[in-house]
Amino acid sequence: MIWISLRRAKVSFSVLEIADRLNIKLVNRTGNEFVFICPFCSGQKEYPKLYINQDKGVFVCHHCHLRGSITDLWALRCGVDTKTAYKQMVNSVSADIQPIESEPVPIKDTEKLNLIYNEFLKMLTLEPRHKEDLLRRGIIDTSGFKSLPEDAKTRWNICSILNRKYGLDDVPGFREQISRKGKPYWDCYRSGMLIPVKDVYQRLAGFQIRTEREPKYIWFSYRSQSKSCVNVIPGKGIPWIIEGVLKSYVTNHFLQIPCFGIPGTDTWRLVPFELIRGGKVIVAYDMEDNPYSLKARDSLISHLDSIGIEPVVAGWNKTMGKGIDDACLYVFKQGIKPRPEMFLPGIAA
């Protein structure tokens, strides 16, 4: 028998009983572990790699690397959360087994990225330190931001589920690794806060990672995979081109303006200029004397002129902070509601 505990309640389950209810085929027994055909990675070929430890009440597949508690096993097999899984197990509810796709679901590139990235976010949480950082910047709704799991097993499980369901071969941010034992497994970046980057249709197109080291921002992508793109926040009014994806979220929160958040000073070429209406754009680069930033900003301004769009350069006193997000937060802390015109050329009334 194995013991499973939830909220201090202890209920005994037979490993074989649970496996039978989940329609998992027993192959062998080795010591205190039962060996089964893994229902998650087996298709036309069966993999007797699912081990359930009857003393610890845990499982692991040595082929697809899924692992967890018996409750997790039930939840994965039936497509429910662990709380529902536990109740079904205790109440002897018949397992409603969800079919496992033997082949990845074919999806168009943009749709696939949006689907996988959204499901990826649902499996993650936001670390308290990252939430505090967002609140400090002035972002109230932190629901769209998540933290990358530092625990390796958690990442491997998440990546394994996504790969089994969709296929991760062409998805930036994920890569197949080989273990010390020569076994393949999927992994992703192991730390940092994910900043979602969306296209004009508000589909997830990628992520920027806010790291806790230098460089402070990196793209959720490995070498040879597709690189950065622009974060688009649609809306009415004159659009802003803002240096920094996270800064675009902060600035939009305070000023309620449509904007493009570029992930780097020289990535303005990624902006979909054909979407701009009204013939005018506000350019909000950081207030610094970095020659590379100034050169990139001037190149952007020249390009806007060349395509018939009037560029207006936003500005503020450097004591308010380097970025437009800093300036907005500075004004807000003075008890004043930030407004777009505060950062545009003119004479203050």
Core attributes:
disordered N terminus, five-stranded mixed beta sheet, 3 domains, DNA Primase, Chain A, alpha+beta, 349 residues, 18 strands
Structure notes:
- The longest helix has 16 residues, at 291-306.
- With 349 residues, the chain is of the alpha+beta class.
- Helices cover 29% and strands 22% of the residues.
- The chain folds into three domains: 2-90, DNA Primase, Chain A (Alpha-Beta Complex); 103-229, DNA primase, catalytic core, N-terminal domain (DNA primase DNAg catalytic core, N-terminal domain), CATH 3.90.980.10; 230-349, Dna Topoisomerase Vi A Subunit, Chain: A, domain 2 (3-Layer(aba) Sandwich), CATH 3.40.1360.
- It contains nine helices and 18 strands.
- The strands form five sheets. It has a five-stranded antiparallel β-sheet. Strands 14-16-15-17-18 form a five-stranded mixed β-sheet, with helices on both faces. The chain has a four-stranded antiparallel β-sheet with strand order 8-11-12-13, with helices on one face.
